[in-house]
Amino acid sequence: MSDVKLAVIYYSSTGTNYQLSRWAAEGAEQAGAETKVLKVPELAPEAAINANPEWKAHAEATKDVPTVAPDDLEWADAYIFSVPTRFGNMASQMKQFFDTLGGLWFNGKLANKVVSAMSSASNAHGGQEATILSLYTSIYHWGGIVAAPGYTDPVIFSAGGNPYGTSVTVDQSGKMLEDVRAAAIHQGKRTATVAGWVKKGLHG
Ligand SMILES: Cc1cc2nc3c(=O)[nH]c(=O)nc-3n(C[C@H](O)[C@H](O)[C@H](O)COP(=O)(O)O)c2cc1C
């Protein structure tokens, strides 16, 4: 095991981004990182969740996944964020979590973290890349080091990967229409590996 600690932080209504997060964590663990998969707090009213069977089932299935706290961002050397595309941008649950991090940011605790992001949307060109890129805007404010996948591995071509960060198209029930498992695993590995390089440079 390397001494890299990596937090995969996600929001998901119907399971896609939870699955992407688990694959990314698998990749980070293959690279030797200690990982945590953490969800951001839900903001939607219970009535809205209960009215959608897929959403309700996913909320129930993941009730034991720990909820992220600002301390987790201090703990981790690297973050991978996974979030559904909502009108071409990150789901508000993730943005609201970001907006709780002012204290950590102010104290320089978010600087030099190695970060990448993933997304899903229900249309093939429904804004996945816009979501990932707009999420990275916040990371630049933190002094984060974006370690996007680029084309650093053949799986980016063969597994429907995306150089900005793994993204996928889903149907109404949240079923993925492309097999991006290998791309998400690679992204996890790469984020953890780059974090190892940065950590070594910072702390020797
Ligand atoms: C309010 C709202 C806005 C959405 N906006 C978009 C969008 O801009 N483009 C798109 O293709 N899909 C859009 N979707 C579909 C979601 O991106 C899709 O349900 C999500 O990626 C599934 O991820 P999850 O299973 O992790 O919840 C939207 C869904 C909701 C509820």
Automatic annotation (TrEMBL):
Domain Flavodoxin-like: 6-192
Enzyme Commission numbers on file: 1.6.5.2
Pfam families the record matches: FMN_red
Top class in the EC scheme: oxidoreductase
UniProtKB keywords: Oxidoreductase
InterPro entries per UniProt: Flavodoxin/NO_synth, Flavoprotein-like_sf, Flavoprotein_WrbA-like, FMN_Rdtase-like_dom
Top-rank lineage group of the source organism: Bacteria
Gene Ontology MF terms: NAD(P)H dehydrogenase (quinone) activity
Family as reported in the entry's similarity comment: Belongs to the WrbA family.
Name assigned to this protein: NAD(P)H:quinone oxidoreductase
